[in-house]
Write a sequence for this structure.
């Protein structure tokens, strides 16, 4: 049987779920299955994060990570969109690049790190490289899928209304595939976040990935877990509140899903 | 009087006006490997300025193909289409096609859809473009829905918005491909009235495709009856009933029956 819960109350259940996880974590800590330094309590993790903030490690790291992500993902999204557009409009290009990109997507994002070390050494350029290689193919594939599924009627209407061929991408093709493009950017962001933090583990002297690595070197499980929680949190926040909201807004405008009107 | 001439579509008044669209020996053959299938023609046809012409015939008789040829979406196998004496090719907003589906762009609101075809035309500034679009929205009774999203409109309103969008760029010929097929009878009856009123007000040359004889009788100054494959004009009927005509008027129904009889003759 499906239990019906009013929409407005679901958030309390979600909140309860996370409190339950925290409680279970605390209970496991009290059970002393593992020594303290390997399995810290939630409170110890929070305290360590506080110490990192006070010691001026956390903010510079977040700043550095977000700056890299901002630059890397902007480049990745631009390249991905441009390639997706060309793929969507040319069967030949699509046939060639689709298999390549699908293949590249099977590669774990961290697998780009060794190559970037070889080519770029320890500079930030290597991190951009990993971010781009991780997310651009996904953005390109979803964009080209979206373009290929544009209802023919829009293209015919645009032509009968006198749209010149050179104006089609900007005036019809991109706007008509906007829902898929945003879905692709959302997915691309997640992959870029994976790649970026993986690259930071090895290559950087600042950033979330660096803090993770530093925690390992200091044998500080509280720091490792704390930074992991932060990584999840910030990845999720951007996914939900930047790309998620954009997606909801577009779908609502198109009348494809309920959401905030706009 | 010139005014009277523009407004009355009596055969004599129509005959005095210049030829807008001329089709000479237009035919279309589809070839499927070794087999060639004649789908249309040859069709010879002259349509004069301000005429409301209906292409009527059964499904698959090639009337929609002919409309697509005039619109420039399909190439002729033989023959020539000329507009105002000049041969035409490819889609152009001189010969605007309104489709069975409304095809309104969901990423634009209603008035932006109507303004779409006005870009780079009339040397319009954005504000003038908006005012121009607004006139056509008011003409189709959607003046209050400028900022609405496409999905917020009913089916009939969407077709009316599509009509405003097709009229706004001031095409020389408006081509209409069974635009009311998906609508309920009440909405349709209202749209027949609107379309006649707009045609009389703007003296637009309109070609409409339908397989409903009563629709043909209600809308056309002239109904061209198409025979089946290859599609050819079987009869050219002039309809001189007074406008506006009501689709539910028995006289229109009787006229429709007459058109149907021509098809079966």
């Amino acid at each position: 049987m499906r239990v019906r819960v009013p929409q407005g109350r679901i958030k309390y259940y979600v909140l309860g779920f996370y409190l339950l996880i925290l409680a279970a974590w605390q209970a496991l800590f009290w059970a002393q299955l593992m020594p303290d330094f390997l399995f810290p309590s939630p409170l110890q993790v929070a305290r360590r994060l506080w110490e990192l903030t006070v010691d001026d490690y956390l903010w510079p790291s977040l700043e550095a990570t977000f700056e890299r992500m901002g630059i890397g993902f902007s480049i990745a999204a631009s390249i991905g969109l441009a390639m997706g557009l060309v793929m969507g409009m040319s069967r030949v290009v699509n046939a060639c690049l689709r298999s390549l990109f699908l293949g590249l997507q099977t590669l774990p994002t961290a697998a780009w790190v060794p190559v970037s070390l070889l080519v770029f050494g320890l500079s930030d350029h290597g991190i951009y490289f990993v971010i781009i290689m991780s997310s651009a193919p996904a953005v390109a594939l979803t964009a080209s899928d979206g373009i290929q599924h544009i209802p023919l009627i829009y293209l015919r209407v645009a032509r009968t209304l006198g749209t010149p061929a050179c104006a089609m991408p900007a005036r019809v093709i991109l706007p008509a595939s906007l829902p898929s493009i945003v879905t692709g950017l959302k997915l691309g962001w997640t992959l870029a976040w994976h790649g970026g933090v993986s690259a930071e583990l090895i290559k950087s002297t600042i950033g979330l990935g660096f803090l993770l690595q530093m925690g390992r070197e200091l044998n500080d499980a509280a720091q490792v877990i704390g930074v992991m929680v932060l990584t999840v949190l910030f990845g999720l926040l951007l996914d939900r509140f930047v790309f998620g909201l954009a997606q909801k807004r577009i779908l609502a405008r198109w009348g494809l899903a309920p959401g905030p009107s706009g | 009087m010139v005014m009277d001439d523009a407004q009355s579509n009596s055969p004599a008044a129509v005959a005095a006006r210049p030829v807008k669209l001329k089709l000479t020996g237009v035919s279309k053959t589809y070839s499927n490997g070794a087999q060639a299938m004649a789908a249309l023609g040859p069709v010879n046809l002259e349509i004069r300025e301000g005429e409301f012409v209906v292409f009527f015939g059964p499904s698959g008789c090639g009337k929609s193909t002919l409309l697509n040829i005039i619109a420039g979406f399909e190439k002729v196998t033989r023959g020539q289409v000329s507009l105002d004496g000049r041969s035409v090719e490819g889609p152009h907003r001189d010969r605007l096609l309104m489709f069975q589906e409304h095809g309104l762009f969901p990423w634009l609101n209603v008035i932006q859809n109507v303004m779409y075809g006005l870009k780079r035309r009339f040397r319009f500034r954005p504000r003038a473009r908006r005012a121009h679009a607004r006139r056509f929205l008011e003409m189709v009774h959607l003046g209050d829905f400028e900022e609405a999203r496409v999905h917020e409109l009913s089916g009939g309103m969407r077709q009316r918005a599509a009509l405003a969008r097709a009229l706004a760029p001031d095409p020389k010929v408006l081509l209409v491909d069974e635009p009311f097929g998906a609508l309920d009878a009440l909405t349709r009856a209202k749209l027949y009235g609107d379309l006649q009123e707009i045609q009389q007000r703007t003296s637009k040359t309109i070609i409409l495709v339908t397989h409903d004889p009563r629709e043909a009788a209600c809308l056309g100054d002239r109904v061209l009856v198409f025979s089946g494959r290859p599609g050819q004009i079987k009869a050219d009927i002039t309809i001189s009933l007074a406008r506006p005509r009501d689709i539910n008027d028995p006289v229109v129904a009787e006229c429709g029956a007459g058109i149907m009889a021509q098809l079966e003759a």
Q: What stands out?
A: The mean pLDDT of chain A is 89.
